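Moderator note: this is an archived Q&A kept for reference. The question asked for a predicted structure of one protein chain; the sequence and the answer are reproduced below.
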Amino acid sequence: MTEHIGGRVRIWRRRRKLSQATLSGLVGISQGYLSQIENGVRAVERRSTQVALAAALDISVADLLGQNSDPEDPVRARASEAVAAVRVALVNLEVGNVDPPRRAGTELEAAIEQMLDLRQASDHLTLAPMLPGLLRDAASDPAALVRVAYVASACLRSLGYRDLARPAARLAVDAAEELNDPAWSGMASFGYILALPVEATAAAKRVSERTLVSLQRAAGDPDARQMLGQIHLSAALAGATAGKPSEAGAHLAAAEAEALSLGEPPDGRGFFGSFFGPLNVHLWKMSLFAELGEHGRVLELAEGVPVQSIPIANRRQSYYLDRGRALAHGGKRDKEALIALSQAERAAPAPFRLSPITRDTVSTMITRAKRRAVAEDLAAMAHRLGISPT
């Protein structure tokens, strides 16, 4: 298996009969940087670089990242087995071929609460096998279906199945329209935006703009305002990915204003676990500066964050991943980066194992370490990710 993105870049570049000079010119990076990427010395950290490389090579970002490409990895195999039944359930819902529900009322609500607890813990490998039954039982109840379909989309995305995350998100959008509730429509649209292919920044922008207009009409609803802030955050990331920092900054400022006005969610989780508030905006700001390549700013923002008070596992993981990648960027603080990445792994083990960007970062650290001795902790992490440390 090709363990890092650079190896796949080299393979596709040669298939397309492109020189390094030609490809680097098409992408807008230096030939030296491209050479470092292909040799595994530098990771492809920014979504915008992934999008540009994929476009120049005429492949998808998923192809570039090599998602779900290692069937020998036990975590990937377990995810694939669980997702197979989810795929069938989504198709059945799409065509209206759904079995009668086996749970309703309080029994279904209890199952949905269990689903939400697993989602908050990012225990997607336990959650995924539950989704087919939940989708079946919620099919005729829009209030239940919007919640189940939204979580199904988030789960599938975290497991690397973005192609299935989008139809699940579409189900949530349709169910929210039946409810005619701005907050739920905003939540469903937020999930749909996150499920779009990384390179679909123009589509993400259109959905964001349409949703923002709708949510602004419901300014008296605190739940809708939380989703207004979340949509601004997703639009900020889309702007950064599209290479439009001023656009990203405007949406970030709007999200910050909403967060300051609303404060932290009183229950600690926010509307349907959105966790929207000043702390979550701060975490998103770290991710935005990482996308813009401002690694020093990421490390500045990482100082003093009360990480252990964050109740949502994937938000704790986001903090540690952004900090770890920023530390690993220059190649001089890999020991500190390894500590941060280990903390990210503890926060949500399966998403960590299944993240192609995480694998690329660790592969890069291994390549750099081969010039000396590979640290035992780094070799152990590489082993868990299915990366050869030798």
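Archived answer notes: The CA atoms of residues 157 and 246 lie 28 Å apart.
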